[in-house]
C-alpha cells in the first residue's frame, strides 16, 4: 500500500478501505463485528474493485483499447466503476440499468457522461429487453464491444480474491470466525470466501439473499423457484448465474426488504455509518447469525455502498411508509 495515498489517477485509490468495529447495533450480542466500509472507494462502492480489475486485465491482454465500447448490465454500482475506468481509459460506455434503480444512482451515472439504457426490471429474464438479456443484445449489435459480464465471469470474484480477501485477512490479523455478506453477482462473497478459507478452512461463510431472489431456494434445495419483485438493490437475481461458486457458501439467509432497510437506518442513526440497503441486509444477517451462536465469535461483514444513493428511498420516511416498512 502507498502509505501516503498519493496516486497518479483516481482508480489507483480503489481498495484498502477501512475496517470498522461496530458498536451500538451489535453490543447486545456476544460477538465482535467488523465491517469493511466499501463506500469509501472512489465511486462509492465495492464494485470499483471489479471494474478496475476487469478493465485493467482486458487492456493488458489486448482485448480492449481506447475508443472501444464497454457494455454491462448493473444495479448501478458496477456501472459507476466502469464509468470511472471508461473516462480514464478513453472508452465508450453503455450501461443497462433497471428503471427502478434509485434516482441518485441514475443521476451519478448521467454525471459521469455514460450512455444509459433503462430497462423494465419486471420483465422475465428470457425477454430480450430484460435486465438479464439486453446487454447481450447490445453486444451482438456492436461487434468488438467488450462485455465484462460480471454475472457470469469469474474474473469478478478473482478481483475480490486478489484484493478484498487479503485486505480483510490482514486487517483482522487472521482472527476470523465468520464472513457474512450479501450475494448479488456473488463476486464479493465468493472471492473473499475463497481467499479466507485458503488461509483458515474453519472460517464459515454466510450469504444474505433478498426474499424474491432465486438463490435461496437453489442453495437449499437445488430448485429454481419463481422470482418475485423486491426492492433491495444489488442483491439477489431473477435467475441462477455463473459467477457465484455456491460451494464456498456454508449458510444462506433470506432477508425481507423492510428488515434490511430498518437495519440500514439503524446503522446511520446508531453507528454514524451512512450505508446502503445491502449493508443493512448484511447487518441483519450478522445479528441473525450471532443470535444463534452459543459462543463468542469474530464476525466480518461488508458494507458495499453509501446511503447517499438511497435518500429518495430508504432514508425517505414517506417512501418507507408507502411501502409499509415503517
Ligand atoms: C449495493 C450493492 N450491494 C451488494 C452487491 C453485491 O455484490 P456482488 O455482486 O459482488 O455479489 C452489489 C452488487 O452490485 C451492490 O451494488
Describe this protein's structure.
- This protein has 326 residues and is an alpha/beta fold.
- It has 2 domains: 10-44 and 159-322, Rossmann fold (3-Layer(aba) Sandwich); 48-141, Rossmann fold.
- 37% of the residues lie in helices and 16% in strands.
- It has helices at 48-60, 77-89, 103-111, 131-141, 155-162, 164-171, 187-199, 215-221, 257-271, 277-292, 317-322, and strands spanning 19-21, 31-37, 69-73, 92-98, 115-119, 178-182, 204-210, 251-255, 297-303.
- The strands form 2 sheets. It has a 6-stranded mixed sheet, with helices on both faces. A 3-stranded parallel sheet has the order 3-4-5, with helices on both faces.
- Helix 7 (187-199) links the parallel strand 6 (178-182) and strand 7.
- Helix 1 (48-60) packs parallel to helix 2 and helix 6 crosses helix 7.
- The radius of gyration is 19 Å and the shape is globular.
- The chain starts with 18 loop residues before the first strand and ends with a helix.
- The mean pLDDT is 97.
- Bound molecules: pyridoxal-5'-phosphate (PLP).
- Pyridoxal-5'-phosphate is lined by residues 45, 47, 75, 77-78, 182-189, 233-235, 276, 278, 304-305.
Which fold does the CATH topology of the largest domain refer to? Rossmann fold
What is the 3D form? globular
Cα gyration radius (Å): 19 Å
Largest sheet, spatial ordering of strands:
1-2-9-6-7-8
- Regarding quaternary structure, how should these chains be classified? single chain
Total of domains: 2
CATH class of the largest domain: Alpha Beta
Proportion of helical residues: 25-40%
CATH-derived architecture of the largest domain: 3-Layer(aba) Sandwich
